[in-house]
Amino acid sequence: MSTRFRLERLLPPALRARQDERRRLHYIDHIIQKWLLVALVVLECALVGLAMWALYRSLGEIIDDNLYRVHLSDDMKVLPRFLAEGVRILLAVGAVNLLAIVLADRIWAVYVHGIIRRMDEIMHRARELDFSENYAVHHAHAVLEQAVSWRRAEAERLGRVRREVAALPATVPPLAQGRAAAQAALERIREHARSHVG
């Protein structure tokens, strides 16, 4: 039995369900992936067009060099010239594609790190118990929208806890009825705390 399997069995059912959900998450961002794909298709079309033009030009030069030859000689070397031009074009296309892959990776990394940086800011403010609404998320993304929604829900929950704590008496009431009311208020606070964990 693997250690990971044993550790997952020790988790409470609510956390175990979240672990299962986490494995099925696919990190897809249709906006940036669509534009990266459009850019790739445009780049490939441009490269194919340029390669065809370069091969046409090279073939034209080869034909011009050999058009007025009267006798067939061994030094024509049409095929080696054509192959050399083809290899040069393939290397250029490969270099441009490699550059495009590196550029797309950098664009994607900057985009994802921007989202993670904003998510870290939201979590840092939550850790500091700063649930103020004056913090605006400038980048619309589903993950950030969920984090802001969670922050609002936490602000509401903590507001309810704050009101319940403020309603508690400063000292333990001497009468049974007062104690029952204080006990009910403490139970509501516990319920708010449990709603945070689950």
Structural overview:
With 198 residues, the protein is an all-alpha fold. It has 2 domains: 29-128; 136-198. The chain contains 6 helices and no strands. Helix 3 packs antiparallel against helix 4 (78-127), helix 4 runs parallel beside helix 5 and helix 5 (142-167) runs antiparallel to helix 6. The two termini are 29 Å apart.
How are the secondary structure elements laid out?
Elements: H1 3-10, H2 13-23, H3 30-66, H4 78-127, H5 142-167, H6 176-197
Distance between the termini: 29 Å
Mean pLDDT: 76
Radius of gyration: 34 Å
Work out the strand percent.
under 5%
Number of strands: 0
Order of helices and strands: HHHHHH
Q: Outline the low-pLDDT stretches.
A: 1-5
How many domains? The number is: 2
Counting helices, strands and paired strands, the structural category is mainly alpha
Helix amount = over 70%
Number of separate helices? 6
Shape: rod-shaped
Biggest β-sheet, characterized? none
Primary descriptors:
single chain, mainly alpha, rod-shaped, 6 helices, 78% helix, 198 residues
How would you summarize this macromolecular structure in one to three sentences?
With 198 residues, this protein is mainly alpha-helical. It is 78% helix and 0% strand.
